[in-house]
């Protein structure tokens, strides 16, 4: 075997963005390794420096006394080796050195050094760095010397030979004595030696000077940089002006002929932002802000390689000063974090065990008692025995937040609507201490395998794992105390994990995601039991930072269902937007939280916590509305086209919702007349089947994608118009793919009963008969309660309705066949 | 999902008893509620009655897993324990083997346990007795079958196998696709 167990590199979950994202330790650790490597020589160099300085200290006196030890001979040997070296020295090379030494002795060390340094600085750039034996610490000096020597060498190549000869001749005797690096002298090594010698002669000072010089050099560079910066700023401003003056010509020039290098672009971005931040003072006369912005956008797109669409969105989202931070933060990975599985161990024990394995870690933060940050590790974090035995889970810090916001209690019934790969599910289970029940659902069967693995690995026993489309979930089961909806999204918050997002997303992707999220959030809300004593909460989260996928979706839910926003229970994060561009969201939207990579060092994330405060009303509302609108349709099928124009008034939709969904029934009823108009166009939009709507103008408005239904219903509707109650039953169904299926149907039925085929009554309701409506609501409510507060009731209802539906469908089919 | 037939129950319990002996009783009669075994997709799941009821709402084809998977029936109606059952085997195990830290990794990659890696072993372990494998820090790592009885284990040379590997927690990663 011995095959490297590498859980994270195998792509185990088939296709899908998230599965790729879940790559754990290996990929994330990879970034540490180069760091170490790069760091290692540095450390070595510093040590090397110390060593060198020590050596220098030791040798300095001797050097002064005896000339030969240039070569780094050890003290004892240097004496009797002297003559041989002398011989050679006399020839040439040593002469040089001697001369050097004399020089140095005679002259000021510093002066010379400075000279050298200057040379160095000038030459350094061109030098290749392939020095084998050379100690990095004194690299630069060596380089200097090398160059000097090279100059010499160029003149007399024999020198090399001489050196070699010398080595050979002395080698027999001095092989041992010579410094380890002195054996075969490459030019570089020679240079190194010379450098060493230099050092020796110069003593400690040289080291200090070295550093100083380096620093000086650095400073100088910085200064020069700064100078250039200043120049750049000036120039860039000039550029801007230029570009603004001649946008077309210059751009084309630049793009066509010489692709701008990133540095200048970056500089330009900085300058541009600077101007934009102090626009009134720094702007160039006659230039519009939009021109600056256009240039900035173009530059950012080039520099960070985003597509224009996404960057535009981000520019809308962040102030310019923050924008660059955000973009920069997306270029670096977030730290690897793990979550302790408190079902199996404690954080302290786990940390100890991991430290023993050579993992460098720290607690995640004050806000989490189970999180650990992994800085680096000598073992793959995703394959330690601790991991395999389920003591921890690799999980991004941002994934903790929604579960903490959900704060599931022991003994509750919790739904995790899109569970894969199971990190949040297991966290929920852990918070519930394996009591209660969790339903983990995911639409992707492949990704569910990881849920199964993780749930079992972490020793979670209270979980049912199933594979439904989340949009249908209320039909399967409802009455949950808490629901966690981690909606599928465009992933704009996790660009660091998946850079493909930068270029792959466009408007339609966002729209599609948002649409799915709206459907999901409604079905999630419908799965909740508002009467739950301990719960009734929904946590909605995405790893996207787009307003369309977050605030907008939540706002939509606020309008469509009886839910309200509540604080998520975390004291950090940025407040959600209450207003964004032309959108105005519900004022409580500030209770939602946004998390950004640049400000919180975790993935971009959005968390909203909603409390459902009524099971019945929203569905009743919807049901009634539908009925109200249905009734006329049912009786006169052809009226629908007339209604459509009225529906087009979308602005209404916003107004009534805003008016205050919390205020409750009367108002909602009052707006009932308007609402259906709102709903319908949506229904139409939602239904993907274009032709259907065309066929079944009246019925098909909200029809489900299931093909045959509308066709069946059509004749029914006609027939049903005489039979009052039945129409009520059927119509909602026909319309209703909207997740609140069974309930609405039920209510509709009831309505039918109460109304008893008196369609005339509906207009009354419409005319804002508040008392009536509220009564009706109460009735329904009481009814609901009677059926049992326990959570089974809705399920039963679903069952019953399912049967009914089935019966009816068969009935209808039969009829149709008859016809 | 259905209850096990008598035949299936017998096969499964026989297998389980190799590891936990008469402690099976503790699995079925638990103080914290009634628990049961159910068969779904040839796999045996162990769950509380509460969760069982909940799971009945979910149609068969959509149900992936309930409670804890203990193992599966092969086509020849033999029962094969999965590593997922470890959480219930480990606390009740009658015979245990502890591994030295050095050989943990080897075992987790699916290798048998050699004498050289054997830290401790329960007294009076018979040959071919089912054993649960622990690390020296008492973390359960998997289970297997003793290749030699305790006495023999003391004498054999270091490279001989003392425990045959059956399942280890590394399978959570290696065989993630086949766990259910």
From TrEMBL, chain A:
Tell me, which GO biological process terms does this entry list?
A: maturation of LSU-rRNA; rRNA base methylation
PROSITE patterns on file = NOL1_NOP2_SUN (PS01153), SAM_MT_RSMB_NOP (PS51686)
Q: Where is the composition biased (Acidic residues)?
A: 93-118, 145-186, 205-217
Skewed-composition ranges (Low complexity): 705-714
| Keywords, sorted A to Z | Methyltransferase, Nucleus, Ribosome biogenesis, RNA-binding, S-adenosyl-L-methionine, Transferase
SAM-dependent MTase RsmB/NOP-type domain ranges (all copies): 326-613
Which InterPro entries does the record associate with it? MeTrfase_RsmB-F_NOP2_cat, MeTrfase_RsmB-F_NOP2_dom, Nop2p, RCMT, RCMT_NOP2, RsmB-like_ferredoxin, RsmB/NOL1/NOP2-like_CS, SAM-dependent_MTases_sf
The record's listing under Pfam families reads: Methyltr_RsmB-F, RsmF-B_ferredox
**Family as reported in the entry's similarity comment:** Belongs to the class I-like SAM-binding methyltransferase superfamily. RsmB/NOP family.
> How is this protein named in the record?
SAM-dependent MTase RsmB/NOP-type domain-containing protein
The organism named in the record is: Zoarces viviparus
Q: What is the lineage of its organism?
A: Eukaryota, Metazoa, Chordata, Craniata, Vertebrata
Automatic annotation (TrEMBL), chain B:
UniProt organism field: Zoarces viviparus
Segments spanning the bilayer are: none
Keyword line: Nucleus, Ribosome biogenesis, RNA-binding
Q: Give the UniProt subcellular location, in the record's own words.
A: Nucleus, Nucleolus
GO term, biological process aspect, one: ribosome assembly
- Stated role: Required for proper 34S pre-rRNA processing and 60S ribosome subunit assembly.
Q: Which domain of life is it from?
A: Eukaryota
GO MF annotation list: RNA binding
Q: Name one Pfam family in it.
A: pre-PUA_NIP7
Q: Where does it primarily localize?
A: nucleus
By sequence similarity, the record places it as follows: Belongs to the NIP7 family.
> For this UniProt entry, which residues form the secretion signal?
none
How would you summarize the oligomeric state and partners of this protein?
Interacts with pre-ribosome complex.
> Record's GO cellular component, any one?
nucleolus
Question: Where is the PUA domain positioned along the sequence?
Answer: 95-170
Q: What is this protein called?
A: 60S ribosome subunit biogenesis protein NIP7 homolog
């Amino acid at each position: 075997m011995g095959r490297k167990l590498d859980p994270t590199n195998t792509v185990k979950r088939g296709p899908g963005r998230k599965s790729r994202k879940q790559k754990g330790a290996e990929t994330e650790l990879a970034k540490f390794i180069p760091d170490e490597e790069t760091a290692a020589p540095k450390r070595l160099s510093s040590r090397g420096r110390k060593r060198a300085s020590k050596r220098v200290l030791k040798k300095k006196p001797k050097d002064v006394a005896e000339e030969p030890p240039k070569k780094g001979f050890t003290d004892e040997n240097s004496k009797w080796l002297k003559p041989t070296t002398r011989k050679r020295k006399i020839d040439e090379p040593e002469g040089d050195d001697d001369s050097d030494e004399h020089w140095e002795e005679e002259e000021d060390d510093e002066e010379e050094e400075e000279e050298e340094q200057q040379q160095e600085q000038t030459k350094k750039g061109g030098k290749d760095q392939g020095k084998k034996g050379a100690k990095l610490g004194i690299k630069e000096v060596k380089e200097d010397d090398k160059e000097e020597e090279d100059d010499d060498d160029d003149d007399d190549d024999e020198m090399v030979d001489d050196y070699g000869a010398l080595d050979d001749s002395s080698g027999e005797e001095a092989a041992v004595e010579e410094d380890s690096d002195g054996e075969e002298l490459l030019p570089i090594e020679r240079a190194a030696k010379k450098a060493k010698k230099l050092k020796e002669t110069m003593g400690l000072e040289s080291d200090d000077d070295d550093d100083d010089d380096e620093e000086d050099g650095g400073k100088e560079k910085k200064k020069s940089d700064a100078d250039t910066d200043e120049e750049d700023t000036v120039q860039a401003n000039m550029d801007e002006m230029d570009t603004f003056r001649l946008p077309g010509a210059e751009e084309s020039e630049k793009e066509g002929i010489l692709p701008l290098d990133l540095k200048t672009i970056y500089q330009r971005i900085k300058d541009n932002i600077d101007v934009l931040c102090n626009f009134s003072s720094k702007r160039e006369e006659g230039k519009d802000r939009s021109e600056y912005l256009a240039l900035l956008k173009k530059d950012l797109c080039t520099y960070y390689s985003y597509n224009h669409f996404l960057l535009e969105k981000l520019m809308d989202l962040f102030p310019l000063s923050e924008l660059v931070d955000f973009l920069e933060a997306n270029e670096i990975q977030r730290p690897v974090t793990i979550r302790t599985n408190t079902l199996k161990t404690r954080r302290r024990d786990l940390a100890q065990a991991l430290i023993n394995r050579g993992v460098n870690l720290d607690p995640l933060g004050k806000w989490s008692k189970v999180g650990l940050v992994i800085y680096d590790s000598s073992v793959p974090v995703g394959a330690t025995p601790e991991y395999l035995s389920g003591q921890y889970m690799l999980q991004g810090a941002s994934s903790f937040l929604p579960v903490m916001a959900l704060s599931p209690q022991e003994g509750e019934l919790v739904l995790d609507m899109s569970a894969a790969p199971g990190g949040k599910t297991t966290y929920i289970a852990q918070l519930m201490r394996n009591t209660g029940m969790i339903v983990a659902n995911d639409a992707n069967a492949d990704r569910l395998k990881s849920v199964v693995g993780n749930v079992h690995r972490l020793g979670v026993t209270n979980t049912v794992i199933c594979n439904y489309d989340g949009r249908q979930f209320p039909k399967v089961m409802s009455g949950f105390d808490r629901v966690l909806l981690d909606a599928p999204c465009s992933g704009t918050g996790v660009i660091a994990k998946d850079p493909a997002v930068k270029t792959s997303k466009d408007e339609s992707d966002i729209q599609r995601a948002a649409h799915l999220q709206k459907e999901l959030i409604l079905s999630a809300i419908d799965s909740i039991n508002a009467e739950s004593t301990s719960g009734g909460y929904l946590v909605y989260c995405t790893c996207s930072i787009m307003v369309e996928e977050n605030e907008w979706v939540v706002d939509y839910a606020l309008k469509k269902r009886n839910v309200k926003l509540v604080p998520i229970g975390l004291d950090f994060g940025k407040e959600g937007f209450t207003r964004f561009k032309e959108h105005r969201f519900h004022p409580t939207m500030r209770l939602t939280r946004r998390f950004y990579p640049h400000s919180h060092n975790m993935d971009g994330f959005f968390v909203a916590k909603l409390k459902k405060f009524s099971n019945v009303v929203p569905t009743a509302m919807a049901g009634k509305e539908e009925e109200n609108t249905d009734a006329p349709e049912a009786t006169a099928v052809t009226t629908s086209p007339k209604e459509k124009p009225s529906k087009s008034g979308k602005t209404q939709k916003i107004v009534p919702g805003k008016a205050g969904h919390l205020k409750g029934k009367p108002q909602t009823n009052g707006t009932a007349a308007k609402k259906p108009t709102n709903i319908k166009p949506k229904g139409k939009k939602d239904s993907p089947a274009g032709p259907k709507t065309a066929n079944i103008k009246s019925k098909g408005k909200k029809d489900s994608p299931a093909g045959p239904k509308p066709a069946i219903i059509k004749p029914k509707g006609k027939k049903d118009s005489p039979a009052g109650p039945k129409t009520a039953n059927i119509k909602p169904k026909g319309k209703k793919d909207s997740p609140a299926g069974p309930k609405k149907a039920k209510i509709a039925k009831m309505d039918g009963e109460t109304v008893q085929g008196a369609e005339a009554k509906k207009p009354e309701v419409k005319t804002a008969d508040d008392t009536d409506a509220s009564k009706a609501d109460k009735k329904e409510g009481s009814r609901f309660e009677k059926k049992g507060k326990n959570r089974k009731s809705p399920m039963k209802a679903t069952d019953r309705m399912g049967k009914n539906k089935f019966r009816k469908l068969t009935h209808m089919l039969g009829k149709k066949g008859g016809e | 999902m259905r209850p096990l037939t008598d035949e299936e129950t017998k096969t499964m319990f026989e297998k389980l008893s190799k590891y936990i002996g008469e402690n099976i009783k503790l699995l079925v009669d638990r103080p914290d509620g009634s628990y049961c075994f159910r068969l779904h997709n040839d796999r045996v799941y162990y769950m509380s009655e509460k969760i069982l009821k909940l799971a009945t709402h979910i149609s068969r084809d959509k149900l992936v897993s309930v409670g804890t998977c203990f193992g599966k029936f092969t086509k020849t109606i033999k029962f094969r324990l999965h590593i997922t059952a470890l959480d219930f085997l480990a606390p009740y195990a009658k015979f245990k083997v502890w591994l030295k830290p050095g050989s943990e990794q080897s075992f987790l990659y699916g290798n048998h346990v050699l004498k050289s890696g054997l830290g401790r072993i329960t007294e009076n372990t018979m040959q071919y007795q089912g054993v649960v494998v622990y690390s020296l820090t008492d973390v359960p790592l998997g289970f297997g079958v003793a290749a030699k009885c305790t006495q023999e284990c003391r004498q054999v040379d270091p490279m001989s196998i003392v425990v045959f590997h059956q399942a280890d927690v590394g399978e959570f990663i290696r065989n993630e696709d086949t766990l259910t």
